Amino acid sequence: MVADRTFTTKRAAEAWERQQKEALGGGSFVSPRQSRTPVSAVATAFLAARSGQVAPHTFRTDRDNLAALPPKFAARPVGSVTEADILALLTALLGTRAHSTVSRIRTTLSALWTWAVRERWTTTNPVRGVRMPPGAVQTHDGAPLTDSTLTAIISSQRERSPHGALITEWLSLTGLRWSELRALRVGDLQDLPFPAARVLRAQSDGYSEKAPKSVRGRRSVPLVARAHDIAREWAAGKGLTDYLATSATGRQLRGTYFRRAVAWTTTAPGHTIHDLRHYAASTWLRQGIPINQVATWLGDDPRTVLKVYAHVLGEAQDLEALRRLNSPLPSHSPECTSRHDPQEGGRPEEPSKAVPNQGKKCGDGGI
């Protein structure tokens, strides 16, 4: 005997016995004792097996996501969790977390149950059939960065750290992620056929270098004149393999030290460094750059750009509509209507001296 279970009817017991024999014969048998293991215990074993097999940043994300699970859910037997349970969990998490954060938690849970099925902790992956519930795709603590707000931020930071203010300005012009700026080398700059920065790698604070987080991998981001000038200032006197943007003391950038140098929480309250990337993307779209091109510069999927920046794309239509509403209405005065319809034939009538304004062109003082 490899498993036992109590049933209220003989028919149910026989059906269960047949299922267990079929699973045992097909190699998919899971011990009921294994399936009763709490989710938290399976998660611990999952993380132990995953250590060293994935990037450190991925491992840390999985660890943090699993640690964020509600205690009641973590105590559930792994084999008892259903698709309805997963959907309820994700929906509840959306009440306190951003859509992107919950989406990453779902990815971790799916990896957990995929591993659990392979290791015979349970028979099915309940996460796979559950789509993300609707919710806000992008959330910000403060209002989106505007031209005037960014100007004030840079001006305030320049008083504290001129060097740090240039970093803020450059990120707002290029849309690079912080990790991508940290890993950028002097040799990644190009002048021909146009000034640009080649994004070849990324390095988050405290982690090793890796490929950039881009849909198409490596990419080039064109540099406007101001961004090109700043980059050349940074590159002066450095070798091709030296970091392009460094701290005021010449060391590789660190987010903690940068925020401290420019007093970020004071000079840019309610905003994050990542908001500078959103500002760059919004500026490009407002200047008429096509979505696909903006997506290429950002290293994102065009569908993501369309979803995140839909409000920016709608501004052009609103502005055009407002321009039309503010334009003078065409005159409908009878005096401005032609006395002759060419499609009906005949000769135009002579303007009558008895009728004032007859023969005046539309717009010459009509109502």
Radius of gyration: 32 Å
Q: How confident overall, as mean pLDDT?
A: 84
What is the structural class? Answer: mainly alpha
Principal-axis shape = globular
Overview of the structural elements:
The chain has 367 residues and is mainly α. The model is unreliable at 137-141, 352-361 and 363-367 (pLDDT under 50). The protein has helices at residues 10-26, 32-35, 39-50, 56-67, 71-74, 83-93, 99-118, 147-160, 162-174, 178-183, 225-235, 255-261, 264-267, 274-286, 291-298, 302-308, 310-326, and strands at 189-190, 196-199, 219-222. Among the domains are: 17-118, DNA polymerase, domain 1 (Orthogonal Bundle); 147-270, hpI Integrase, Chain A (Orthogonal Bundle), CATH 1.10.443. It is globular and about 80 Å long. Helix 3 packs antiparallel against helix 4 and helix 8 runs antiparallel to helix 9. It is built from 17 helices and three strands.
